[in-house]
Write a structure and sequence with these properties.
The structure holds two protein chains of two kinds. By secondary structure, chain A is mainly beta. Chain A contains two helices and five strands.
């Protein structure tokens, strides 16, 4: 059960903001809020066939390094994409999806993924 | 005294103290489609008739929460409302991901409306979304809050092999309600018509709904849709010819077309909002997403009649009028037809996996 961790990270999962790296805790007191526009392009990617615990139901899926328009690289899962569409440089945009479900009775964790831009 | 003034004294119609309108709207349809003939291939050897062409199916990582978030973001973008000014986030659905824990708090958090907002999930079969709109009109129209976000969204359940499996689809819309003076669509009046009618239901913990087959037609859909429409039109002093557009709840293609004909509407009035042949029945989202498709093409001055239907049973009817603000807000988000055009066909096996019909 990782309820506390998921709750602390919700700002990043939903907005991709607030520095995107450190959890929203007291360590961020001097940080300024910043929200990315959610657009970028695929910098690199890899498709996962042997998924870690909690993600088996989604395999195969592709994880990418996405270069955001503002500059930073973020790691995220891609969604709504077919294998033949995958290429470095593909324009993508942020979308909020289910990241994982903790079994039949646990919590559902939502967060950002990227899909081909509309 | 004009007809309108007389009508304002009539307490049959629902009208708020302060005029309310739609200041933003947003749709969402997932990317996947399954053709009705593919479902027929599975259960009738491809020999059965099919009620629609194809239906929209949510992907593995989508549910009513994620779909509501995207529709809500589109509505926020169109309205340009500061999310902190949204005083209610209400999600109507019959497929909320949690039995206990609101979809609406997650949506409110994701669009930045927390913590100074109301949040609740609504349930009334397929009219939970328009019920949330009625409540939003009350909230804004009373002055309790400036903006309310009402969402109708579903990932509808269809038992394998059942008649509903051909149509039970995923999609919906978000409607941002606010003062009529700022609105792209003014809500002139609405009317609700309900009765205890056992046409379709799902018991607690049941995975799939049950229904009364042919009982879902005359005493259920048509009685309530026609009843709500006729009363609203009569009290507004309007006939079918006074509306440029009409959209009904659309459980299939046939029911809304027949309701339109019974009320005297022509195909050019309902075709823009009749999406069920191409995306299926999006349940709580069906009438509202039809409205978004109409708003994508409507012009200032157009009148729209929107009538939902929810089993159990009831209809909400709305008399709407488009303002010149529509041209300003329309292109600020993806259009409903853009989502429908984003289409990836899947077979029954993939559909069974996406819809969690495989048991290990």
């Amino acid at each position: 059960m990782q309820v506390a961790k998921h709750w602390r990270m919700k700002a990043q999962r939903y907005y991709m903001g607030q520095d995107g790296v450190a959890p929203a805790t007291t360590t961020q007191q001097n940080a300024e809020d910043f929200q990315f526009n959610g657009r970028g392009e695929i910098y690199s990617y890899s498709t996962v066939y042997d998924a870690p615990a909690g993600y088996e139901g989604q395999a195969p899926y592709t994880v990418a390094l996405v270069k955001l328009q503002e500059g930073p690289l973020v790691t995220a899962q891609l969604t709504d994409i077919d294998e033949d569409e995958l290429r470095i440089g593909l324009p993508v945009e942020m979308t909020t999806r289910k990241l994982l479900t903790e079994g039949e009775e646990g919590m559902i964790v939502y967060g950002y993924k990227f899909r081909p831009s509309f | 005294m004009t007809t309108l003034e007389q009508n304002n004294k009539d307490e049959t119609l629902l009208r708020p103290v302060n005029p309310v309108g739609i200041v933003g709207y947003g749709a969402y349809v997932p990317r996947y489609r399954i053709e009705a003939t593919e479902i027929s291939r599975m259960w009738t050897g491809g020999k059965g008739g099919v009620p629609i062409k194809e239906k929209a199916v949510n992907g593995l990582d989508e549910d009513v929460t994620t779909m509501s978030i995207e529709a809500a973001r589109n509505a926020v973008n169109r309205s340009q409302v500061n999310p902190h000014d949204i005083r209610a986030v209400w999600v109507g659905s019959e497929s909320h991901p949690y039995a206990v824990k609101p979809t609406s708090t997650i949506v409110a958090e994701a669009i930045g409306a927390v913590p100074n907002t109301q949040a609740a999930d609504w349930e009334f079969a397929c009219k939970a979304g328009t019920e949330a709109m009625q409540a939003g009109i009350g909230l804004v129209g009373s002055g309790m809050g400036k903006y309310a976000l009402s969402i109708g969204m579903d990932t509808a359940q269809g038992r394998p092999g059942d008649a509903l499996e051909y149509t039970a689809a995923a999609g919906g819309a978000a409607i941002m309600l606010g003062p009529a003076a700022e609105a792209a669509v003014v809500i002139n009046a609405s009317f609700s018509y309900v009765s205890d009618t056992p046409d379709f239901w799902r018991r607690a913990h049941a995975q799939y709904p049950s229904h009364g087959d042919r009982f879902t037609g005359e005493p259920a859909y048509f009685k309530h849709v026609i009843g709500a429409s006729e009363t609203l039109m009569e009290k507004m002093g309007r006939t079918a010819a006074d509306y440029r557009w009409v959209v009904f709840h659309q459980p299939n293609a046939k029911f809304p077309m027949r309701a339109a004909k019974m009320l005297g509407f022509q195909p050019e009035q309902y075709e823009a909002g009749l999406l069920s042949p191409r995306i299926g029945n999006t349940y709580s989202g069906a009438a509202m997403i039809g409205l978004t498709a109409i708003l994508d093409v409507a012009q200032a001055g157009d009148r729209i009649l929107m009538v939902s239907y929810g089993s159990g049973a009831g209809s909400d009817a709305f008399d709407l009028e488009v303002t010149e603000k529509i041209d300003e807000i329309r292109d600020r988000a993806a259009k409903t037809e853009d989502y429908i055009a984003r289409r990836k066909l899947i077979d029954y096996a993939t559909y069974a996996r996406f819809r969690d019909k495989l048991k290990g």
